[in-house]
Amino acid sequence: MAKVKPFRGVRPPKQMVEEVVSRPYDVLNSEEARAEAAGNEKSLYRIIKPEIDFEPGTDEHDPKVYEKAVENFKMFQEKGWLVQDDQEKYYIYAQTMDGRTQYGFVVAAWVDDYMEGRIKKHELTRRDKEEDRMKHVRVNNANVEPVFFAFPDNEELEKIIREVTADDPEYDFVAPDGFGHTLWLIEDPEMIAKITSEFEKIPNLYIADGHHRSAAAALVGAEKAKNNPNHKGDEEYNYFLAVAFPASHLKIIDYNRVVRDLNGLTEEEFLNRLRENFEVKDMGEEIYHPASLHNFSLYMGGRWYSLTAKPGTYNDQDPIGVLDVTVSSDLILRDILGIHDLRSDKRIDFVGGIRGLEELKRRVDSGEMKMALALYPVTMDQLINIADTGNIMPPKTTWFEPKLRSGLVIHKLD
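Request: output the structure for the sequence above.
Response:
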């Protein structure tokens, strides 16, 4: 059963929220963060990407960079740019994109639920990336950025969302990327108790986005428990910061592929090889979007093609075999183009669907890439099925948008 609790969030005063909050640390590089934070001393990038306070080119893993994060986090609190709530609360966080709004609960999730597999994952993590975020959590003694969870729909929690969001929010703004962000505080003790008890009825939480952050937060909590001779189990470090959304609120966006060359084949030879496993249709020069599962969109040589996988080339009974990312990785990237490792092969790159298929066309037309492949997006049901069966999704399968804004609420570990 999922164990969550309210906590005393650390967050910006209402009038400063837009200056403080930022995109997550892992969706932009140091130079982009430097540009976004230019002229803004209150930007959270000074805590989550503190290398921007040093000369360009400074290694973000340098010990002095982590020290700077601590110094800045402390300064933000001393200057009143981040203030801790005086009582434990839950929060509701809404994100709006393209006229669609999703509502999540900001909670402190239990470390043991992660360690014992009740918080389920669908991706592999890299130890170096975990270690970087673990250092960040350790030195700041806080989860500065939340992880993004999904949970099976629960009618009582939906009622609470409706009730709370009928009132005025604490924060309500549109970020520079055009996405809306709104936050409500939940202070009523009865409602807080109800949220805690409803989450206890939910068997599992699912990591939607932020596998490295989840691993880092949970591992630091477990480490603190082990190193505390007086550990009781109710300390704040036994919990980490998450925003948990009902699964039906979330929409996974496509995650597409661009490839530099055709592995020595001409365009005609490549299309002929594709015809062995796909029905191939020339769709002309107009952008073509994949129409359904097992239908792909190929862009090459100024033209769009519809590729429909033939029966027998996928396995709808297998949680991994049903995925179009598996079909395309095996039958196109591996068997025809000789790309075996999506994580390390330099001939392939990945484009989040938020950029649109125009971006695929642009990268091929520029000559940088030879062909682009657009995939039909994975569903939340598929993601949950994969996590429930203990499977791991292939790399670069899911793209969630909008990303959680960092700095709306921070969780201290003491």
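The chain has a mean pLDDT of 96.
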